[in-house]
Structure formats: C-alpha cells, structure tokens
Amino acid sequence: MRHHASASNTTRNNKNKPSSNLKMVGSVRARVIRTLLAIQNGQSLSSVLDPLLNSLHEGDKGFAHALLLTTLRQWFALERLLNTLAVNNIDEIEVRTTIQVGLTQLLYLQVADHAAIHETVEAVKEIEFAHASGLVNAILRKVVKNTHKYRKKCDKNHSLPNWLAYQLKQDWSEEYAALTQGLRQPAPMFLRANTTINTIDAYQQSLVEADVSADMVELVSALQLPNATDNAATSVHTQALRLEQSTAVAGLPSFAEGAASVQDMHAQLAAPLIHQALINKVNADALKNDAENTNELHILDACAAPGGKLAHWLELLNTDKQSPLFHVKQQDTDETSDSTSSRTVKLTAIDNEAPRITRIHENLERLHLAQSEHINLNIVCADATRWQGIGESKPQQADKNAPVFDAILLDSPCTATGVIRRHPDISLLRAEEDVEQTVSLQAEILDNLWAQLKVDGYLLYVTCSILKQENVEQMQDFLRHHTNATAIEFTEACNWGIAQDVGRQCLPIDSASGDGFYYALLKKTV
Ligand SMILES: C[S@@+](CC[C@H](N)C(=O)[O-])C[C@H]1O[C@@H](n2cnc3c(N)ncnc32)[C@H](O)[C@@H]1O
Fold first, then answer.
1. pLDDT for position 156
2. What's the CA gap between 70 and 74, in Å, rounded?
3. Helix (H) or strand (E) holding 41
4. How far is CA 62 from CA 54, 58, 67, 248, 471, in A?
5. Which of 25, 445, 450, 509 could bridge to 384 as Cys pair (CB 3.0-4.6 Å)?
6. In this model, does residue 306 exceed pLDDT 60?
7. Helix axes 147-155, 93-107, angle to 10 degrees
8. 464 an active-site residue?
9. Torsion-angle region of residue 416: left (phi > 0), alpha (psi -120 to 50) or beta?
10. pLDDT surpasses 90 at 404
11. What Gene3D superfamilies would the database entry show (predicted)?
C-alpha cells in the first residue's frame, strides 16, 4: 500500500511574516518593496505582478519589472551577502527587503550609484521604516566602494533556499553547478503557432514582418512504442518558435485573434507525445479489429488549467482531420470489403480550481478551439484524486466500473521547481515539507486515473519539477505497485532531456533552452 496524504498542493512561507498589505502608492521602488513583502507573505508573483504594473506609468513599468524579477532571482544570494555586510542582525523584514532592492540596483541593474542609494533611502521612509534610513544608506555606500567584489561574492554559489540546493546536489551532482546558476537567469520566450489557423512557417514569417526576431527549434522524440512496424522507434516532431527578446503579447501578430500561444518549448512536447501514443493505440485496436473501441474514443486531460497543453492537443486533433482517430475502417460482414465510418473523439478536461477553469475557457475561446465538429469537449471542475470518468463516457454501459479512457495526459501538480526562472517567487514560497505532500498527492492522482485507463491505453505523466522524488522515483514507485504498467522507452535519438531509469528529464541549464520538465509514458498491459 502506498502512503497517501489528503493534502492539496499548497505553498507556505515559514519565515517571520511581514505585516504590510499590498499598497500601490508612492515611488516605483516603494511599490516594488511592498510587492516583495506581499510575496514573502505567501502571495504568488502572478497574483501581484499585474496590480504592480497596472499602478505605474508606462515609462516606469520596464524598470519595476526588472527590479522585481531580478531581486527575486538573486534573493537568497542577496540575503547571504546582506548578512555579511551588516554588523548586527537586521530583524525587520521590511528593512532587509529594502536593502536587497538597493543591492539589486547596484550589482545587477547598473543603476547609477547616486540614484540607487538616494531613491532606496527615500523608499524605506515611504514604507514607514524611516528609522532604518541611516542603516540602508550606510550598507549601500559600503557596496559602491567595490561593486565588482560584491557582485563576485553574490554570484558565487547558488541563489536558492538551502534545502532546495541540498536536494538538487543529491539529485544532480554532475549538473549541480550549472543548474543552480541556470536557475538564476531569465528564461527565453517561446511561442506555439496555432496550426488550425496558420502553419508554423507562416506564423514565423508574420513575426519577421512585425520585426520580431524568432528562430524555430525542432524537438525530436523517439519512442519505442509497441506495434510500430519492425520495432523501429516512432519519431515525434515538435517545433517551437523562440523569440530573440521577450516581448509583450500585445506586440505579437494576430495574438488576440488566436494565431499563437506563449508556451515553453519543453511544455510543447506533451501534446504531440500523448497524441502519437493515442494514434498507436487506435492503429493497434484496428489491427485486432477490436469492436469495442471502434465507435468512440475517450481521452482525458487531467489537471488541465489554464489549458496550455489542452489547447495544443486540440490543435493537433483539429489540424489532422483525416487522422485514423476520426475514421474507422470496418470489415463488412462478408469479409470481402472494407467500409469507413466516422468516429467522435470525446475529450474531457478536469481541474480542481474553478478560477483556473475560467482561464481554460478564455484561452480556448481566443484560440477558436472551444467548439469543433469532430471533438466532443467537456470541461469539468473536479478533484483528480477522486473523480470518476465512468458514466461520463457511456451511461448505458453494462459494466459501470469498466475503464473508459484510451489515453490520459496527466500534467501533474508539482513543486514547479523546473520553472523557477520564470516564476522566481517559487524559491521563496516552497518549503521543504511541500515536497513530500506533493509526492503523495501525485501518487493519489496517478492511482485514481490509472484505474480508469483502458487496457492498451497510454498515460503520459508530466511535471515541471526537477526533483527526482516527483519524477523518476515517483514512476519507479508506481511501476513497483502496478504490475499492469509498462514504461515506454524514449530512445537516445531524442534530442532533449536526460535519460532516466524511467522517462526523460529536461533541466533548465541552457539559457537558450526550455524549462525543467519531466516526461514518462506508461502503457497499461492487462
Ligand atoms: C501543472 S498545472 C497544469 C497546467 C496545464 N496542464 C497547462 O498546460 O496549462 C497543474 C494543475 O493541477 C491542478 N490540480 C492540483 N491538484 C489537483 C487535483 N487534486 N485535482 C485536479 N486538479 C488539480 C492545479 O489547479 C493546476 O491547474
């Protein structure tokens, strides 16, 4: 019996919590400091970033964004540096945060010394900690005497909480130095062209015409899928567009009209992989002339919000309308000829957070994917540890407990340690004890969904974590407890990720490459 916790994937901050609320008044620096205090108080960057930026004049937004994101990326390194700079311990989080914002300007943003010091001292007064203005001034003045030395000191080592750095060293000793430095850098911006509206080449061309430089990155996956002819690996190709410079989506051609989505290049592997696995299942069923599977296919995107991978899967389904998924070849009763009938694909998407479900609907509307002729789409707010898809599919089915899904995409809740470059608040918000809770939640979801997968069906397990406990170790544990599961091998012909005992792991080391995702494909054998 595997250990299960009833916990949800929550984040906590176990440090002294600052008291201030998010008050968007005063100078840019004071607003950034207040935003950082709100994050230390447990709020996510995504919930506070827009209120901050929307409160500012257009001309100040870029600086505020850079100051906030860079301070978060360098947070733990700045904390360590601050501890060596102060003669006495500084207990007030408001004061520490202000000094860290000052250090970011001096060490990472090349703000002129005088402006950085003067404005930061003014900001500490604005947040009503004027008694510390002398201290802030003294520490920042000390640093400008030798910024080169302090920058070097700050860059040494990692900028992560110690528990996370320790775990990464255990998991990735060879890659550790590059990985921890990689996590301090910004990530490139990637797009996915909506192939139901334009080809990838055509969208790249429209980017050129809009003066947005982008190159195409091709990811190749090679899967040792059973039933492939002569045991050759099945190749799956994914093409992502990488922008030379990150930009606001409003500046991208036809973005509002649904021509493209922002999605990390490694996140763009998920839909093509499960789509190919589904095609393989359908082809294998056809060879076996499996009547039960001929009329309807039912597929599941579990943990679907805000719908990035769901939209991608719908794009693939809608782009290839001649696919065997929609057309069933049947042998006529006299066995002398074949006929073809059409088949509906039922796609169910679930997530347990209602506000995030609203975002799925908004995203699909923008991409013109909310409705389509061949696909019966059903979006449900439900808890994947308990939800039963039975009856959703075939209410008239005799055996109410028979599994119903031909393929399942499980983009699992996780610690999101693989996307720290984009969401640097994760380093501050995650606590060590979250890992075990998350691993238990993942196991619970896996168990519940596995029981609902048909024999010969596939489940793609995905996380944006770089911790082995949530990834390869989760899969090893799953395979030990489910003898009817087999892991499909990703061969060395894959040009992404690092082969694991089960599945493949991408690490966010290369500043031009994608985030830290893990992929494992499982097949149900009996
Ligand atoms: C990694 S995100 C999914 C991202 C999504 N697949 C995409 O590509 O846009 C994980 C999702 O799991 C959902 N989640 C967490 N616990 C869940 C549960 N017990 N049941 C269903 N969904 C859950 C979260 O609300 C979150 O939206």
1. 94
2. 6
3. none
4. 12, 8, 9, 11, 36
5. 445
6. yes
7. 110
8. yes
9. left
10. yes
11. NusB-like, Sun protein, domain 3, Vaccinia Virus protein VP39
Residues 443 and 4 sit within 8 Å (Cβ to Cβ): yes
Largest Cα–Cα distance of the chain, in whole Å?
Answer: 94
Please state which CATH number belongs to domain 28-157: 1.10.940.10
* 462-492: pLDDT as tens digits: 999 999 999 999 999 999 999 999 999 999 9
Going by CATH, does the domain composed of 266-524 fall within 3.40.50.150? yes
Token pair of 213, please? 């430089």
User: Could you report the predicted ipTM of this complex, rounded to two decimals?
Assistant: 0.99
**Where do the structural domains in the chain lie, given as residue ranges?**
28-157, 266-524
Ligand 1 atom with least separation from CA of 444: 19
Q: How many residues does the chain have?
A: 526
Q: Is 396 helix (H, G, I), strand (E, B) or coil?
A: coil
Q: Count of alpha carbons within 13 Å of 172, Cβ hemisphere only?
A: 24
Among all chains, which residue has been given the structure tokens 């100051």?
A: 67
Residue nearest to atom 12 of ligand 1 (CA): 303
Cα distance between residue 501 and residue 482, in whole Å: 17
174: which 2 tokens? Answer: 């060879």
Q: Is the pLDDT of residue 280 over 50?
A: yes
What's the whole-model pTM score? Answer: 0.93
**Spacing, Cα 394 to ligand 1 middle (Å):** 25
387 CA from centroid of ligand 1 (Å): 14
CA dist 216 and 243 (Å) reads 9
